[in-house]
Amino acid sequence: MILCLDVGNTQIQGGVFRGEELSIQFRKTSRQKFSSDEVGLFLINVLRENKIDVNNIRGISICSVVPGLNHSLSSGCIKYLSMEPFFLRAGVETGLKIRYKNPLEVGADRIANAIAAINLFPEKNIIVVDLGTATTFCAITKTRDYLGGTILPGIQISMEVLESRASQLPGVEILKTDHVLGKSTVESIQSGLFYGHIGIVNEIKTRIIKEVFSDEKPIVIGTGGMSSLFEKEQIFDVILPSLALKGLQLAYHLNTSEK
Q1: Is 109 a catalytic residue?
Q2: Lower CB density within 10 Å: C or N end of the chain?
């Protein structure tokens, strides 16, 4: 079994692969710092609650965009699971040709998504749209060239900025609305966030297709915590919320002798 942890700015998404099957998933906030003991005990408890013998974990694969948590993550894994985790970072084997001006700038979570995408959809042009703390777009060619992408504030951040910077606007629950025109302040904000993000996704993916794929339609994958909100909007060809975890499992096998 391989334990995978996708450490984002808002939360940690975790999962355990039994062979190719993602057998469990779990989440933990990452908005505050935690000690190696806290992360180690959390992982032990998650595994036990899901009836997974800690001794059956053969490896740990992590991608992190929060460098300040990496020491605690590594130390916790060593202390409580008796193994040093593999971190997906620059210089490891990915199967991608990174065409960024500075490959070190590409977030590990975006690389994890891309690794999974090229393995799930081989020899296809791909756009990955990750709806998390930030909304990111990544373009990958059928020849596994990672071309680059787009980054903008995610839905949750957009709502929090409205709440904090506009004194008369409240925080709202982020959900799908049936009408563009809201009949209250709350409905208006919810509509703006939901339909505004649909417009963003459609506009940016259209421009990416024209700019780098010569109008040849790619596979468009939606992923991240907010992706399921748009399940019925037909802006993605497929929605795979756990894409990064799959990429971590594949990256682990690419870089170790474990199969």
Answers
A1: yes
A2: C
